[in-house]
Amino acid sequence: MKAIWNERYQQENYQYGIKPNDFFAEELSKLKSGRILVPGAGEGRDAVYAAKLGWEVHAFDLSEQGEAKANRLASAEKVRIHYKVADAGNVKFPLESFDVIALTFFHLPLEIRLPFYKQCISWLKPGGKIIMEGFNKRQIGLSSGGPKQLEWLFSSAEIAAEFPGLTINKNEELQRNLDEGPLHQGKAEVNQFIGQKL
Questions:
Q1: Environment class of residue 164 by beta-carbon count within 10 Å: exposed (0-12), middle (13-18) or buried (19+)?
Q2: Could you tell me the fold of the domain covering 2-196?
């Protein structure tokens, strides 16, 4: 997987654009700034946006090319992000250390996803939130992006079950048009989820 993402991100242009995911940006703008974790941060669009709003940003991705482009974007926007190259299967952060964890189109195989989500809950402070958007299972066959393996995609029922103990503030399946760089373009079937740790 690392080689695939490094090859994708070594392109000069930003494959998912430099603007943040709009659902993430809208939800983050409602919150008081604090500490945020951006897993699968890629080329850094969401991480850099959060830093511009005054958040202390921690991010990780498998790709060294992603890290380089994220740091380049942060430098251009005159903000600082804490970005490391790491795998979701073994990355570690302190317990109850984040106010928000942002999961934007971060798709994992089930055997990694379930323990990783459990870790995410443990990393959230009381009152902290998961803000998530990803492709749902109806995305199969559409050309606007996402994994081609059905089990990597979401349903609202599965998401609710995979984040036990969180208060669900939003959990919707919807169709929308994406305009996020060359690789997220056009009609898409997505899930949007907000869960809060009490």
A1: exposed
A2: Rossmann fold (3.40.50)
